[in-house]
């Protein structure tokens, strides 16, 4: 059983290690802040806010901290890491409808290890008043559920943001999730077969 849990940890890296809201609401022209928490021992690791890419990784980092810079600002986006509370806050200012979509808040874990991450869906409403309603701290792990990406790419104003990654890669998600399940079943079968032989 312990080996199966280890295999699940390898196949589902990053789930539950970083927590945050499932959905955040803002309004056009306003701002919103997203708070994500992380485990002890990760205080000095880089924290980031990015656009999702293939295999639930980042296609482009929007803002990212470092061990020497716990607070970073990039155009309309800023990130601040409170290492005492093990919580980092991402702020998006000057919201536009083009900012709607799925983002990742996460912790960089190393060159040869998957980042720990949490998916957040941002919804931007028209008007001057809109509730910023977090859906509660919950992990959105790729194997179980996934925040839907925007149906079409939304261009941003020139010179204001990092280019958004193409959401087309999300159409491969069901295949990738199925491959993860098959890999887990195959490994489980191999472990069971080896234990029966022994």
TrEMBL record:
Residues 1-17 form the signal peptide. SUPFAM superfamilies: Immunoglobulin. Keywords: Membrane, Signal, Transmembrane, Transmembrane helix. GO terms for molecular function: transmembrane signaling receptor activity. Residues 21-125 form the Immunoglobulin domain. InterPro entries: CD300_family_receptors, Ig-like_dom_sf, Ig-like_fold, Ig_sub, Ig_V-set. Pfam families: V-set. GO terms for cellular component: plasma membrane. The chain crosses the membrane at residues 172-196. Gene3D superfamilies: Immunoglobulins (2.60.40.10). Its main location: membrane. It is found in: Membrane. This is Immunoglobulin domain-containing protein. It comes from Otus sunia (Oriental scops-owl).
